[in-house]
Amino acid sequence: MSIRTSLKKVLPPISITEQEALDAGDVWIESSIYRGKPDMQALRSIPQAKLTADEQAFLDGPVQQLLEMVDDFELSNDKHIPQHVLDFLGENRFFSMIIPKKFGGLEFSPYANSTIVATIAAKSGAIAVTVMVPNSLGPGELLMHYGTEEQQNYWLPRLAVGKDIPCFALTSPEAGSDAGGIPDAAIVTKGEFNGEEVLGLSVSWDKRYITLAPIATVLGLAFKVYDPDQLLGDKLELGITCALLPKSHPGVELGNRHDPMGVRFYNGTTRGENVFIPMDFIIGGQKNIGRGWQMLVSCLGAGRGISLPAMGTATGHSALKSTAEYAFVREQFGLPIGRFEGIQGKVADIAGKTFLLEAMRVLTTEGLGLGVKPAVVTAIAKYHMTELARDVMNSAMDIQAGKGIQRGPQNTLAGGYAALPIAITVEGANILTRNLMIFGQGAMRCHPHLKEMVDLIHSNDSSADAEFNKVLRKTVGFSVKNAFRSIGKSYLPFIREAESSLPEVRKYEKRMNAIAAKLAPLADLSLLVLGGDLKKAELLSARLGDVMSYVYAAMASVRFYEQRIEDRKLAKPYFDYAMQWSLQQAEQALVDFINNFPNAATRGLMRVLTNTYSNSVSGISDDLLRELSLAAMQDNSVKAQLTHLVRPIPGDGNDINEQAFKAKHAVAHLLTKVQKALRKEPVVPFVSLENALNKLQEKGIISSAEATLLHDYNEKRKLAVRVDEFTFDMELVNADGNTAEAVSSTKDAA
């Protein structure tokens, strides 16, 4: 019996849906990480994404107008997105960023799409989701890639201008993460359409969690097709298929809503029972029956690589801006709270991870802009960037404390905090993405020979043995090279390569190379020892995926620091934290993987090959935490670059915080003067800063002009540290003491 035949009996078969997922998308720079040699030259040669004149004009025009129209607190207390906002989105083609210009769309780059969605998300999660869904996985993208010419010419111009609002229905009550197991079914049959008998499908479905479904006018639908009467051939099961149905089509049910954490985007259900549709409703026509899953998984890049990472990055920008400004302005025990080390640890974590988020957002969208569809990279971006968003938001809530939990127009965190669990559930729940997808797809797609070997193992061609043996020899050779590379770079630091001309980058580049060199033999040994069981060992495989993910994040940080930062001296603490944290996580994943590997002999071999033991994890110094936290509270170009997605609107919470922050920087030298004077001759009773300033002015210690600046700052400071309050009947008490209705009357909905 041949080796191939023996393995065929041991390895579990790969289902059609698994095979199509593995075949979908492209391999990009992540493959170099898996193979043990991060390709820094390829990283640095990627064309830099920039906004075109049209894209910048859209950001400064319609997007800015939209931000000024939206009151997220009012929206959260209402039932519907105001109709005039929905109309504005349609009229200004917010739903058509991915649709080609020839169909009336904007045809923006992935980088521009990401920047626009993130800028909106920093203001309102509900509006951001409403914008991102038509520009993500759904009817628009499926039509562009797979629709017939007739379907494209009819639907795309209507979608471009918001004449039709789309949704796409995949998830059902019985199939969430196992999307390939959807029970929704269609039977090939004949029926009447437009007064004629035609061949078509009788479809029954029950879907939930469908974003925009309650207001959609056209429904994208995934279901399985069966042909019991063999009207199309001799097969009974024809596979997953995607169709496009107008809401007005008889039997289509759309309208009921869910309530996702009180975030007021439209999300709901759609149902239908024995709804007859003609073959023309299938996206791409009858020839695409059974190709639905392949179509879906090949179009996941927009949601996973653009929209959700954009929202995660917006959370980082919002958390950094509001928290750094608050920590600088808010004082306790006579000091800004940002000077206390407990706060500094959290501020530094927010700042460093926001640098990481922005770097990953830029690199991932630059890759998508090249036209590649990197399935593994987009899964990395989706999982890690939404998780990083949770980290920074939790730290921001810790620091802002009472200010962070009191809802109201001035609260800059509450909306994002409520929306966080939503981002980690869509486009594949985060647990699924980390534990099954990143390494599962990464191993098969990034290994130079593994996919070919598995295909040959499952081949029914008797002549496959010879080809399999060739591939097996290549695989063994590849693994031996990986083992020697790992030994060399683990024990001989001086042979680790670095190409950067910047000394602060070179040391991290060497660490990245060492970590990637360790990943390759660990993956090889795992596949050799566990084989198909590695698929079930999710805790183990997820850690290998983590190593690849964190090295990708470090590569993104290097590229961002080298190519996007103008003042590297100011940015260095951010960069150091982003790199040290990413590489620390990768090292910890290696340690945990080896410690938990089930085979003792292999565990020992892994330690020898990689020189990895329980103490093989680097730390982040307190000095760096202190340095970065102080840097984050400065008003400079780096902070502006890492908070540019937040566009304050006059009078909103971000504007109030920013004014106090800038005012304090403007009078910092005067505050020092005041503090020295008060220490020398205290004002008793102090009563208030206003009183102290008046006394100092009376004594001639500060001038009238200085007093004016200090009083102006003090008023802005008081406004920044206050929280919204309401009357007993929930009328908002404004800063001037007047009241205004906190809960507006319900707006007309779409």
TrEMBL record:
Pathway entry: Lipid metabolism; fatty acid beta-oxidation
Gene3D superfamilies: Acyl-CoA dehydrogenase/oxidase, N-terminal domain, Butyryl-CoA Dehydrogenase, subunit A, domain 2, Butyryl-CoA Dehydrogenase, subunit A, domain 3
Acyl-CoA dehydrogenase C-terminal bacterial-type domain: residues covered: 444-726
Known catalytic reactions: a medium-chain 2,3-saturated fatty acyl-CoA + oxidized [electron-transfer flavoprotein] + H(+) = a medium-chain (2E)-enoyl-CoA + reduced [electron-transfer flavoprotein]; a long-chain 2,3-saturated fatty acyl-CoA + oxidized [electron-transfer flavoprotein] + H(+) = a long-chain (2E)-enoyl-CoA + reduced [electron-transfer flavoprotein]
EC number(s) from the headed UniProt entry: 1.3.8.7, 1.3.8.8
Name of this chain's protein: Acyl-coenzyme A dehydrogenase
Superkingdom per UniProt: Bacteria
Short name of one Pfam family: ACDH_C
Keywords in alphabetical order: FAD, Flavoprotein, Oxidoreductase
Source organism (scientific name): Alteromonas ponticola
Phylogenetic placement of the source organism: Bacteria, Pseudomonadati, Pseudomonadota, Gammaproteobacteria, Alteromonadales
Names of the cofactor(s): FAD
Location of the Acyl-CoA dehydrogenase/oxidase N-terminal domain: 70-162
Domain (Acyl-CoA oxidase/dehydrogenase middle) ranges: 167-267
Entry-linked InterPro entries: Acyl-CoA_dehydrogenase (IPR050741), Acyl-CoA_Oxase/DH_mid-dom (IPR006091), Acyl-CoA_Oxase/DH_mid-dom_sf (IPR046373), AcylCo_DH-like_C (IPR036250), AcylCo_DH/oxidase_C (IPR009075), AcylCoA_DH/ox_N (IPR013786), AcylCoA_DH/ox_N_sf (IPR037069), AcylCoA_DH/oxidase_NM_dom_sf (IPR009100)
Domain Acyl-CoA dehydrogenase/oxidase C-terminal: start-end pairs: 290-434
Family: Belongs to the acyl-CoA dehydrogenase family.
